[in-house]
């Protein structure tokens, strides 16, 4: 028994050290986490994983730039500081309301989006893209990307999904009306030009 104690006692500090956990567990840095996610699942998921918290509800799913709302800021001042149009700001942050009356202090809002893959690929050598049917009347002739309007869609939700402004949707599809009150579900509208 004495011999066994002589063999185990010198190893006891090593066993104790190997079994104790560090006082503060290591945490992955956002850059490391984003790199791992990007390699495994693509940039869209990485952008979502890198989103700060808390965010205003309903921000664009493909948001890749954020702004923390401070006291005294308005949608107009945030959009101007980010170098984006107010229309894009509203499209990417629909829960702030059309008059910016529900902008939440201390929450992040979206100030930029990454391109989405929902648009059909266009070729630089192509002069025209086949137009699907049916389309809402008055669509621009140089349309290169289309969207099939579904029940519940609005110009704002379509703009968010397609990464374009509400003003562009209205100008490319004048039949929807200036307030986008004449959007027909089951019809294609233009969401990008050549």
TrEMBL record:
GO terms for molecular function: chitin binding. The keyword Signal applies. CDD domains: LysM. Pfam families: LysM. Keywords: Chitin-binding, Signal, Virulence. Residues 1-18 form the signal peptide. Residues 65-111, 145-191 form the LysM domain. This is LysM domain-containing protein.
């Amino acid at each position: 028994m004495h011999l066994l104690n002589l063999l185990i006692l010198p190893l006891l500090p090593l066993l104790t050290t190997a079994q104790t956990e560090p006082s503060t567990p290591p945490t992955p840095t956002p850059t490391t986490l984003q790199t791992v996610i990007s390699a495994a699942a693509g940039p869209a998921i990485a952008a979502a994983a890198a989103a700060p918290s808390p965010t205003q509800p309903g921000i664009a799913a493909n948001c890749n730039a954020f702004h923390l709302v401070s006291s005294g800021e308005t949608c107009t001042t945030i959009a101007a500081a980010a170098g984006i149009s107010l229309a894009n700001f509203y499209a990417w942050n629909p829960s702030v309301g059309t008059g910016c009356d529900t902008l939440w202090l201390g929450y992040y809002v979206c100030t930029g989006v990454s391109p989405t893959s929902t648009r059909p690929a266009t070729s630089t050598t192509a002069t025209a893209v086949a137009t699907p049917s049916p389309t809402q009347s008055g669509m621009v002739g140089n349309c290169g990307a289309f969207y099939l309007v579904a029940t519940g869609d609005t110009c704002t939700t379509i703009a968010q999904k397609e990464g374009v402004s509400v003003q562009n949707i209205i100008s490319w599809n004048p039949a929807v009306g200036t307030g986008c009150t004449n959007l027909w579900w089951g019809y294609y509208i233009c969401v990008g030009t050549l």
